[in-house]
Structures are given as structure tokens and as C-alpha cells.
Design brief:
It contains 5 helices and 2 strands, in the order ααααββα. The chain is mainly alpha-helical. It folds into 2 domains: about 70 residues, no CATH class; about 45 residues, no CATH class. A hairpin with a 5-residue loop joins β1 and β2. α1 runs antiparallel to α2 and α3 crosses α4. The longest helix is centred in the N-terminal third of the chain and has 16 residues.
Length: about 120
């Protein structure tokens, strides 16, 4: 797949040529990377393979393929729930969407989940 290889090389160069390895990619570069990742995944490549090809973390590629972005995150303000000190012995709940709640009692967790949806 010559076209894919040359696109991977271009992406790798541009991603690697950034001033800082931290922080978000420029929108155009990120969208090209996502399109490349989707095409490679459709061809059977794993997130690990794609990550190695373009020089990004496997977690980033997996997030791109799952369609998760920081734009889908929303701030949450909890009101009307008694403060409960976080403890290591409290319940830990991880929802299917990845929300992790620690240190609350069962009633507070239920109230939080009902409020957040």
C-alpha cells in the first residue's frame, strides 16, 4: 500500500516536527491522522500498528477510532449531595463510558449517576 505508506511517513514527519510533543495537534493534522487511522483500521491494521506508523501513542489512535474527543466531555457540578470524605475503603464504580467514581457511599454514587445520566 504505497499511498498509505507515504501518507504515514508524511504524518510521522509532521507530528514529530512539532515544537512540543505535548498538547493537541493542529486541527488539519489531527483530521488527516484520523482519516488515515480509519482507513488503516478498515484494512485490518491494529491501533498499535497505526500508532507505530505515525508516531503517536496507541491510546490516541484508539480514541480516534472510537470517536472520543475532548469536545464530548462536559463539566459537571454536583449540588445537593452531602460531602463525603474520599476514602480508600469506599466504593469504586467505573461506568461503561469510562467515568470513574471513587470514595463515595452508595447513595451518593447513585445520586451522582442519576444527575449525570
Amino acid at each position: 500500500m504505497k499511498t498509505g505508506t507515504s501518507e504515514a511517513e508524511k504524518l510521522r514527519r509532521e507530528i514529530g516536527g512539532r515544537r512540543s510533543r505535548r498538547g493537541p495537534l493542529l486541527r488539519e493534522l489531527r483530521e488527516r491522522g484520523k482519516a488515515y487511522a480509519r482507513a488503516r483500521a478498515a484494512a485490518g491494521a491494529s491501533a498499535a500498528d497505526i500508532a507505530a506508523e505515525v508516531g503517536l501513542a496507541e491510546k490516541t489512535i484508539a480514541r480516534w477510532l472510537a470517536g472520543v474527543s475532548s469536545a464530548s466531555l462536559v463539566p459537571v457540578r454536583v449540588v445537593g449531595v452531602e460531602r463525603v470524605a474520599a476514602t480508600r475503603s469506599g466504593a469504586v464504580v467505573t461506568t461503561p463510558s469510562g467515568l470513574r467514581i471513587e470514595g463515595l457511599d452508595v447513595d451518593a454514587i447513585c445520586a451522582l449517576v442519576m444527575r449525570c445520566g
